[in-house]
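Researcher: Structure prediction, please.
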Amino acid sequence: MKKLFGTFGVRRLANTVLTPEFASKIAASYGTLVKGKVAVGGDTRTSTEMIKHAVISGLLSSGCDVVDLGFLPTPAVQYAVRNYYDAGIIITASHNPPKYNGLKLVDSDGIGTPDETEIKIEEMFFNDNPERVSWDEIGEVEKNSGIIEEYIQEVIKRVDVDSIKNAKLKVIVDCGSGAACFTTPFLLRKLGCEVITMNCQPDGFFPGRDPEPTEPNLTELIDVVKATGADIGFAHDGDADRTICIDEEGKFVFGDKSFALVEKYMLKENEGGLIVTTVATSSAIYDIANEYNGEVIATKVGDLIVARELKDKNGLFGGEENGGLIFPDFVYGRDAALSVAKIVEIIAKTGKPLSKLIEELPVYYSEKMKIECPDELKQEIMQKIADETSEFEVDTTDGVKIIKEEGWIIIRPSGTEPIFRCFAEAKTKEEAKEMAEWGISLVSKFLK
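Model: Predicted structure follows.
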């Protein structure tokens, strides 16, 4: 069992656990395995610059050459690695609060490193034996400041620019002071949209709102969309790999609905294809696949797991219920910029407002809740929940997914925070809420 790595990478309190020494040692361990040119970039957190220097030092000490990409979205780093480099390390804690930071390690395809690689890194880390090369073999550092513009241009190539420009859409963008500040507003202006920005000045304290784009954190964006008569609002997390939409009526659109919307039009455009998602994603994904000649594969939770399956099975499209959409022909990971471009393209080409497009999707209601739980108790509680619910139809691909007549609930420990997450889906809002509360009560029962 891994001690450091979670669902994707390592996240810890910055300069408390995730110190420069910690980061350098992880980087040196990965560099020992890579022995090549490694790209390094990160989000806007106050600790990112400090951690980045430590990561670069660790890589150099193992004999790797380093390309410093600066501050930029996680998918932009993944794009750069896939096209130019041997590996990458991204300094980010994604949606976590500002006091956290983390290290996302990606392989030469730009996909998060697999379990076997992470186990080898942990062995070197805990046994103090990453390789340190002699003074005359220490690596070199260069900078590449052009990746962001190249990444934006590659996104633009993948949508119908003329249709978007002709639609003259008014868009509100809330980057949450994170890495999307460097991409989404510029991308949308290049696509001919009228853009109004919120929290689009990079700031590692995230003064405007919490980095996680949940409905309670986006009340100001909702108000601005309604007040300005905008066609759509977009919000991102700290490292700009997730996109959440607010429709023209100011309604929060859950990530599984935007996933289903893009899935529908990807399948229509390509006359079918393979969709990869997780066991925690809406049943609507399966309904749409059945209607538009698609096939669905469900994996454990984690975008790197979805991305690897998309690569191995030559999938068309994938994603998660949290607003993370994966376009495998471009980036093997969740990509906020292409998600934004694709959604405005769908609105432009159909001539329909987002609310209408969402209404046309299969109707399910979801409820998401979480509860704090110490990491050391997670496995014990999972087993007790599995035993407690054995009378129902249960899927243990990841956590415990309980399937009942009125819907389903998945109860699983977070791989990045000391919490349990409960996702429920049902045919009515009330039933979804009841199931989520039931899930929370099960965790609470065994916490005592």
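Model: Residues 429-447 form the longest helix (19 residues).
Researcher: Thanks, that helps.
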